[in-house]
Amino acid sequence: MSRIVVTPLSAVTDVILRHQPSHVVTLLSPEHMIATPAGFPAERHLRLGINDVIDAAAGDNPPERSHVEALLEFSRTWSAVDPMLVHCWAGVSRSMAATFTILCDRLGPGSEVRAARAIRERAPHAYPNALLVQYADELLDRRGRMIEAIKAIGAGTMVAEGAIVEFPLREL
Q1: Bridge partners of residue 6, in order along the sequence
Q2: Which of 16, 22, 50, 133 is most buried (most C-beta within 10 Å)?
Q3: Residue 59 pLDDT > 90, yes or no?
């Protein structure tokens, strides 16, 4: 079934074994970046070395526009026949922003509120990284709709680590 599976880093190996994704997106700080999982094709593993910050001037390795460009280019190679796995350290912020970006791109203009609500319904802990969402909004020419949709769902429930969450495309 066509779906995006979001998970924290701690569950990546189990999720790969259970869901057999065709594509994997890793969003981790450069110092914690993982290698491509054994047996997984490197060309279907996007590794984005970014820290979870929402101010481009704050800290090292903030998300940049080029990271979202790479995410969109990579996600558009996904046929959506097999699942896509998206993960970050906790499965709360960077991975949820990336998933929101992919959903908005796949579902088209006007889907921003629907995609944001789907994230909140399935992942009460989600708190998508606002800087990644801002770049995605610009690149997808959504004129602030992605930013507003994420603001509307509010901050997620505070957790140390998110749960494994599935986003079936046909249900959105």
Answers
A1: 86, 165
A2: 133
A3: no
Name residues whose C-beta falls within 8 Å of residue 163's C-beta, 6 or more positions apart in sequence.
91, 123, 125
First to last CA, the chain: 13
- Confirm if 94 and 27 have CB atoms less than 8 A apart: yes
Buried b (16+ CB within 10 A) or exposed e, 3-31: bbbbbbbebbeebbeebebbbbbbbbbee
Per residue in 75-129, pLDDT (tens digit) is 999 999 999 999 999 999 999 999 999 999 999 999 999 999 999 999 999 999 9
Q: Residue 6: what are its φ and ψ, rounded to 5°? A: -110, 135
Query: What's the token pair of residue 101?
Result: 């970006």
Which conformational region is residue 141 in: left (phi greater than 0), alpha (psi within -120 to 50 degrees), or beta? left
All domains of the chain in start order, with CATH: 3-171 (3.90.190.10)
